[in-house]
Amino acid sequence: MNMKRLLFRNIKQNIQHYYLYVFALMFASALYFSFVTLQYDPALDAIKGGVKGAAAVRAGSMLLIVIVGVFLLYANALFIQRRGTEIALLQLIGLTKRTIFFMLAAENFLLYYGTLIIGILMGFAASKLLMMILFKIIDIHLTASLSFSVQALGQTLIVFSVIYTFMMGMNRLFLQKQTILSLFRSISATEAKHISAWNMVVGLAGIILIGSGYGISTKLFSSDWKSVQGLFMAMAFILGAVIIGTYLFFKGTISFLFHLWRKRKGGYLSINDVLSLSSLMFRMKSNALLLTIITTVSAVAIGLISLSYISYYSAEQSAQNNVAADFAFTDKKDAARFTAALRSHDIHYRETVIDVMEVPTDISMILDVADQSRLQFHPSATPLSVISDTSTGRIDVKPGEALLTGYQDFLRQFLPFKETGTIRLEENGRMIPLHYVGMKKDYYINYHFTYGMPTVVIDQTMFARLQKGIDPQKKKVHIGVHLTDETSIDRADQLFQRMEFASIADSRLAMSRHQKQTFGLIMFVVTFLGLAFLVTSGCILYFKQMGAGEEERPNYTILRKLGFTESDLLGGIRRKQLFYFGVPLLLGLSHSYFAVRSGWFFFGTELWTPMLTVMAIYTVCYSLFGVLSVRYHKKLIREAL
What we know:
Layout lengths: L2 H37 L13 H30 L1 H9 L4 H41 L12 H28 L2 H5 L12 H21 L10 H37 L6 H11 L2 H30 L1 H8 L4 E3 L2 H13 L4 E14 L19 E7 H4 L8 E5 L3 H6 L6 E7 L2 E11 L6 H4 L4 E4 L1 H10 L5 E9 L5 H10 L6 E3 H44 L1 H9 L4 H34 L8 H31 L3
Parallel strand pairs: 3-7, 4-6
Antiparallel strand pairs: 1-8, 1-9, 2-3, 2-5, 2-8, 4-7, 5-6
Protein name: FtsX-like permease family protein
InterPro entries: ABC-4_Integral_Memb_Prot, ABC3_permease_C, ABC_permease_BceB-typ
Organism: Geobacillus kaustophilus
């Protein structure tokens, strides 16, 4: 048999084991080529948000290189190790390590670059679809065109060729270090069957570390931390505790719990227990690091996608909170010019005018912060915006009382207020005490007046008293223009954008679109990176279970000869796959939940709907790899006889 025939025979023989690897490589190369094509597409210049389109896609493509590179190197290491017996037999029949290396390199070259070319063609076809998806997300009305980028092709070939070179370097080192005897043993790994008290200590430590990380994360942005340095130390502790705790959980807790379960059953195990519980007990230590990495990667992917979706999902609500009308002005002449333009185009509206004063306010007695001396401002003389209750049209504040409204969620985490107390406003150099009656969420004036701090609402009589003695420069006005027919909002916004104003003027629609463009672009990039995380981590677990199934094939043969049916064996297989794929997923979901919950308020106004949506989609996609693994083991069981 010549080398050429042997080469193609090996490819044909092993292609059934490589199909998911081929899919992952095809998906990764298609996604990378599409990203790089978008990077060189001039249509991204239409995005004029806070994040440049090409820069965001470029950053995403660089992270994608790291994800794909690590996955391909790891998958290559698994496959070369699984073929240890084959390589040893080739050496026994007289082939040198050099010859075997070039044979493997040629085999990988054909498989790798054949898949890469198909992936590039798929990426080229998908690039227009990705551009259409991006334009839809960021609400830009442009036509996506299908164009082939020579620059993107060259960059893709260079990147994947570098990865291929590293893969061949790993194979070369593997062949040089291994002897024939060690190659025969390369897929045989055993663990100690003894479960000691140390496992209980390690497992308990893992649970304690994870729990402490979760506990601190719930108070991460509260007023408990007295310095920025303390905050960063808390973040570092959470990260380290959760990751190390996850590793110890897989290394000690699982084995010990399964040991207790087996002891409780007195050693009498069903066939399902043998195929699931026993296998898990004595392979857990060797798989602890891999499962920790998969869990961490899943948590990072779910967390980042959730936060980006929270930002995008909350864009409209954030715009409503920041701009208290469809159009808001701080100059009466600007407002008059704009309303005249609306009338000339037959656009109906109503106008609200709210007088605003900036008054030094003592909030020290209602601020729910234990140590106020470390704050970066003076709570006893904080300048707050003050309006009258009659200007709101909804609130009725009694004389001698004060109500706060329009407080941003992220500031509420750092500076919580009590439910009642005393607030004092400055009038002609003396402080007037008022009874604080609570906080409302409604926003009546623009963020230019408040910068996230609450607005003080008092009765009209008290407001008029303060107006008489206050510095004229502290007097301001908020003019809100509300359209009576929301279908005219686009025409009105076009008029607004064409006009120039002497003072600050805001459009709620323009702000919403700006935030959707910025956060939509980030969500687009992060989502596809998360998809790459999902595919690579799922494939790695699948490959690992594929190898474990091949090792257990003789056991399946024995059990089938003893009379156990295919359905008998599949019950234990399903339980084992449910654990291997389910536990990292559940821990990843838990980690991401506490991570997102600790700081979601920096990104938007809504937590549950975006986060649960992302978690549900990720769970469904991730579960597909578990289903594929069960199908692969089902095939092994059928071939066992």
